[in-house]
Amino acid sequence: MATTIFKNGRIYTGDSRHWFVEAVVVRDGLVHDLGSSADMLLQYGQSDAQVIDLHGCTATPGLIDSHLHLGWLGLTFLQLDLRTVRSKDEMLSRIRQRADETAVNEWIQGFGWDENLFVDGGIPTIEELDAAAPHCPVFLPRICGHANLVNSRALELCGYHPDIEVPAGGVIVRDSATGKPTGMLLETASTLITKHIPKPGYETLKTSLRRSIRYAMEHGLTGAHTEDLRELGGLEQTYRLYDELVNGEGLGLRCHLLVYYPHMHELRDLEMRAGYGNSHVQIGAVKIFADGALGRRTAYLSAPYADDPTTSGYPVHAQEELTELVRQARELGMPIAVHTIGDKALEMVLDSLDQFPAVAYRDRLIHTQILRPDLLERLNHPNRIADIQPRFLAADFPWVIDRVGEERIQHSYVWKTMMKKGIVCAAGSDTPVEPIDPLLGIHAAVTRKAPGETHDGYLPQEKLTMEEALHLFTLGGAQVTNEAHVKGTLARGKYADMTVYSRDLFAIAPDELLTTKVVMTVIGGKVVYSS
Fold first, then answer.
1. Torsion of CA 234, 227, 262, 231, to 10 degrees
2. What predicted TM-score, i.e. pTM, was given to this entire model?
């Protein structure tokens, strides 16, 4: 039986029986023993044992991102990256540059613009997009993925006319004076465009997904809960891609695949259920959207937006439709995972869930940013988990204060309160909406501010300790998938998944997290990344 010994580390186990150890012994991909380096080498350091020296580095249980989009991330590597753009003029300049390299009628796709970061204000108009790329259709999702910019060529190719039927939950934003499209499509209206964009071939998808899986492991992730069916071509093909890359090629990352609700029929046809698969690739919950995002005021609030009293946002599904989707999932024995940012959207989801018995796996409420005290009580349920994204705080503050108002912000992004109440919580990045680096999420959780800011934090009473933040990215991620007995902490018989860092997370100042690097990622006792 092959033995690997990781020695000379400051290894945080997450296990109260022994918070820190120096060494971990691995056999068959599992933690066989752990303790001091001297004891582990004495007992298991036979001549055939592989010994890996951590050189005093700090390690933790392997980090798990509970909500991201690896398929989407892979495709962004092939597209125009607008996440670093800081002005409208810069955005238009990048579009012009790409258009100069693009043939007539070939699509220009980009991602990641955020008008809240623009120093010159404003969003490109459809006329400006037309001037920047007159011969190419343009499709540019916002950083949140809930708003999209298109030019006239894109509208022409999708057959736009003033009476075109817009999918439920979507909006084509029109000029109030002329009634003509402004180039902004919200929520499901984007499907009018996306169905006309040529789909990447299988090998392109596989290459881009391979890159994003490796990218995740380079940032210390040992597990990822990912929702990809829209990008990767449905359930059967998505599962095949992950199976070939993770199981076939041995990439290692433990991938939990959420199933976008229009593909529930594939679950039935393929006889798949939550937990189907193995320890590296498995099926997860049914993914549903209840509302949009705060950036373009499409998140559904129970009272109007403070900076625009004409709207409270809107739901993606009416209450009856949402309840029907939950019913369909329950008929398949499936949990649900629902995007819910606004408090009214969360209320709707909980109202639907209350009508059905729980299933074997927890239902997850994704984002849960705007809350009310009564909703906190309803979230505190053994079969529900709050899937939060700490990095959203760094991206949303301070503008979100004006958006929802001083009173409502006191009940928003309240992770300390949630954990104190006993609500089961896990944390993710929602990459590519936010950077994949989990240390950025941990930084946001413990400082309540963005990198470079010097104040005491937004709602500083909600700051988490390092142990609490790590819990979200380790044991919390395991609890979502009913795997706390095999991962999330380092203990005998559990998966030997570890993340190793260049600095001691428990000794450094919080802002030093921003320059801390992952030096090693270990999955099942195998080093899958080393710097």
1. -40
2. 0.90
